Request: fold
Amino acid sequence: MSSKHATDGAALMQSGLLKEALQAFEAGIKADPKDLPSWLGMARVSMSQQNEAQARRAFQAILKLSATHLEAQSTLALLDLRKGDKTALARLKACAAAPEAGFFEQYNLAQVLQDSGDLKGAGQALERANKAAPNNPYVMMELATLALQQGDARTAAETAKKVCTLVPREWFPELVAARALVKLGSLTEALMRLDAASKRFPEQPALAHELFDVAMVQGNFAAAQRAAIDLRRMSPTDANAVYKHALVFFTQGKVADAKPLFEDALRKAPKAIEPKQGLAKCLMLEKKYDDAQKLLEEANALNPTASGPANDLATLLLKKDDGARAVKVLIKVHAAEPEDDATNLNLALGYAQQGLALQAKPHVRAALKSADADIRSQAERLKARVGA
Reply:
C-alpha cells in the first residue's frame, strides 16, 4: 500500500508538477527508506527530468527492496545501454518479452529501437505500451513522432493534437503537431498553433525557430519578426538569430533596416556564409558590386558547394561577361546538387556566354523543368540561342 507521500507525489506528477512531486517522494523515503512506491516515483520523475544518475540510484534502491522488479531491471538496462554497454540490449528485450511486461518495459524498448532506426520494431513496441496504458501521452507522443518519420503526417497531426490537450504544460507536442500540419499543407493552422505556443512557452527556442520558418513561407512578416526578436532575447549573442531578424527586413525590401543587422550577424560569426550572402545582396542593391563580390568570394571559399552564395557570385561574374569563371564556381555546386534550378540556369548562361552551346544544352533542359516561373522564362529565351 502506498504511503501518503507517495500518493501525493503521484498526483503532483500526473499534473505535471515534477519538482513538487519529487519533493513529496523524497519526504516519503526520508520517513521510510523502504517506501518502494516513493522510490519508484522518484525514479520516474528523475527519468522525466533526464537526471539519469539520480534515476539509476533510485532504481538500484528498488531492486534491493524487490529483486524481480521488472521496470527497474528494464530501465537500468536502458541506462546501461546509453552508457555503451551493448550487452544491456538483450536484458532490455528480455524484460519487454516477459509475460508480466507492462508499459515501461515496452516504452523503454521502443526508445532504443527508434534511436537505432528500427521504426517498425519501435512502432510495435509502442503499440504494446499503448495497450498496457491506453492514452498515455508519452506513448502517444512517440507514436506521433514515429508517424511523422514514416511520412504519415495525418496520423502524426491527429495524435500530437490529442497529446496537446492531455499535457498542456508540455511544448514539444505543439512542435510536432505544427510540423505535421506543415507536411499536410495546413500552414495557416500550423502558424496559429506555433504563435500561440510561443507565447505560452516563451523560453523555448525550438518553437520560435519553427514559427519563424513557417511565418516566412506564409509571408507573415509580423509573426516572423516576433519570432526573430524572441530568439535574440533568448540568445543575445547568437548570430543566426540576428541574421533571421535581418532576413525579415530584407524580404520586405527594407534594405536600410536589414543591412546593419547582417553586419552585426557577421561580426558575431565572421565565418558564417549566410550573413555574408545577405550583406552582399544589400550591397548589390546599392550597386556596390565589387564589395558584394568580395563577400561572396569569401562565402564561396568557406563552402564551395553552397548553392546560394555560388549562384549570387556567378550572377555578378556573368554581368561582367566572365562566363568561364562563373562556370568554374558552379561546377562544384552542380556536382553536389545536380537538380538545383538556379545552378543549372547559371551554368547554361555561363557556357552560352563562352559560345559553348553543346555544354549549355543539358542545363537549359534542366532549368526548363523548374517550378520557378522566372527561371523557366530565362531558360526559354536561352533555348533558342543554344538550340536545346
In short: Residues 135-219 form a domain with the Serine Threonine Protein Phosphatase 5, Tetratricopeptide repeat fold (CATH 1.25.40.10). The first helix runs from residue 4 to 14. The chain has a mean pLDDT of 92.
